[in-house]
Amino acid sequence: MKPLFNIIASAMLFTLLSCTNTRTFFVQNMIDKERSFETVTLTKQFLEVDKLEGLGIKNTETNEYEISQLIDVDGDGIMDEIIFQPNITSYGRTTYKVVSMSKKEQPKAEDLCYSRFVPERTDDYTWENDKVAFRVYGPTAQRLTEENKPNGTLSSGIDAWLKRVSYPIINKWYKETLVDKTGSYHEDTGEGLDNFHVGSSRGVGGSSVKVNDEYYLSKNYTEWRTITTGPLRTSFYLKYADWKAGDNNISQYKVITLDRGSNLSKIEDYITGTDVVSVGLTLHKQEGVVYGDKAKGWISYWEPLDDSEIGTAVVATGDSFINNNTYIVDNKDLCNAFVDLKVTNNKAVYYSGFGWKKAGEFKTKEDWYRYLSDFKTKIDNPLIVKRVK
Fold this sequence. Notes:
This protein is of the alpha+beta class. Helices cover about 15% and strands about 40% of the residues.
């Protein structure tokens, strides 16, 4: 019986090792920069597992669990991705294992990446992480404006909410301002405020289509769907009514993602009817400095804002940066710094966001420029993720 037992034991060990190897992978950094707050996405196909629920990620060197988040991308109730943010040294490589894990073993982490539809403020859609916050405007706000009624906003620009705390502020600010009426998010009591004017401008990374030197804009979003919120990522979908850019018929929707630790939202702009999309930064009073460089792959606007300063930016992905220009007309809200980006297979991908001096991270525009250059280098040299065979 011993030979049979040995054969069975060897087979079980081989099976166990095989299953373990399909769930073991490494993350490698190919550049001379430390990497953190960059999100690694693992799918069921990559891991060769039937489901992701009940799984966690363990660092094989420290033997500690990583903070992770499960994401149902298509809204069918089945988790499609598990994400985490490794810390990888310059030119470093770290091995991880995906293991079964109970909720009790899951590292505790606050849901810093959050977004939601806001019916109590007409129909804003608002999102934030531990660094920044934003909002856009919906169809009710558009209708109120078109009917000359109060509380309306007609804009597909992106508003910036300037926060200087790491904890979530969206629900707190709306509640204090609209429900309890104990304060106003237009006043800074230590957490930040909304003093960033958008109007019909592009705000911080709103898109447009240029035809014969004129920029055409969509109206407010018409549909929304929250994809995920959690400790590492919030992501959501926005649909726009079809619109015209000159004689071009434009159809458009966006998927916007904001990860922990990032000042920039990732915007996946799905658009038909054009080969180029123009992404803008509002110039407000035109008192700031516009900087754009195709070789660097980003544009920025650094300006004074009340008692502080702010830098806004758009960072292109890959070689999608075509050119940039500053557009000045009599209507202040139509004055923007634009970058033209290639639309490939009806999709343009870029990042947009801001850094507020009062938040303490960027004291000068040079600090902001360094952040943008590092950000561009990292997205163009993503972390390599491979299974251990």
